[in-house]
Design a protein that fits this description.
The protein is an alpha+beta fold. The chain is built from seven helices and seven strands. Helices cover 52% and strands 19% of the residues. The strands form two sheets. Strands 2-4-5-7-6 form a five-stranded mixed sheet, with helices on one face. It has a two-stranded antiparallel sheet with strand order 1-3. The chain is globular, with a radius of gyration of 21 Å.
Length: 252
């Protein structure tokens, strides 16, 4: 009965997710038209004073709504993973390259990478890994802001336990302990301009891939996210059901 209840709950959540994604998609199309029209009006009209301020506000808020919808669609679209052999070191390097061109990055942010081995193959979905790491990196950059600081990626392998631990650490302002419990909730954010979806996507990906995720944060010292991956073994069978079963068993 408990299993049946869990299946029914999962089905309901899937249906809600699909409906929400459909609604978000329908909203995004007219919003894109509104945003484009406002940009044209802004460039064609000679505005000043209060009118200029209102126009700037409309442009800013339409961009913010568009970003929220895009991130929500990312959140809703995360489905079952495609399990493969993935070089986690390369995924981290690729993420850092992309991050250098992201709007949240500032030259005052110093990025470091440390790995116990130059190549570390793990089991998982490369595209979801990249989305997961970029969201964590962007979150750190937003916390650091223009003042800058350090953002470090540390990869630690344990071949005896067949695991790789990834630490994403920043020297930002830190998060109050009472808020770390809610940090992965959708639409919860400690930032004024945050959508509250970046870390929710991280949590959703980790849940889909059966990855252990935890956070440590201290005010005035910074924040550290810890993710545990399973090392690739040459005899691995990438049947999704088999991998999910093994990952679930490893976590218990």
């Amino acid at each position: 009965k408990q299993l049946e209840a869990k299946v029914r709950t999962a089905d309901r959540l899937t249906a809600i997710g699909e409906l929400s994604a459909s609604i978000a998609h329908e909203i995004r199309n007219p919003l894109a038209a509104i945003s484009g029209s406002v940009e044209v009006l802004k460039s064609d009209l000679e505005l000043s004073g209060e009118n200029q301020r209102l126009m700037d506000l409309i442009v800013k808020e339409s961009h913010r709504l568009s970003r929220i919808l895009s991130e929500f669609l990312d959140y809703a679209r995360i489905e079952r993973a495609a399990y493969n052999k993935v070089d986690l070191c390369r995924v981290v390097s690729d993420t850092i390259q992309v991050l250098h061109h992201h709007e949240s990055f500032h030259e005052s942010i110093k990025i470091g990478i440390e790995a116990s081995e130059s190549i570390l193959y793990v089991v998982g979905d490369e595209d979801l890994f990249k989305q997961l790491l970029l969201n964590l990196a962007v979150n750190a950059c937003e916390a650091l802001g223009s003042k800058g600081g350090s953002l470090d990626f540390r990869l630690l392998s344990n071949r005896e336990k067949e695991k790789v631990v990834l630490l994403v650490e920043d020297s930002g302002p830190g998060i109050p302990q009472d808020q770390t419990k809610r940090i992965f909730e959708p639409f919860f954010s400690t930032k004024k301009q945050g959508t509250g979806l970046g870390l929710a996507i991280v949590h959703r990906i980790c849940s889909a891939l059966k990855l252990d995720l935890s956070i440590k944060s201290f005010l005035g010292e910074g924040t550290s996210f810890r993710i545990e991956f399973r090392l690739f073994k040459y005899q691995d069978d990438f049947s999704t059901d088999k991998v999910l079963g093994e990952l679930t068993e490893a976590k218990t």
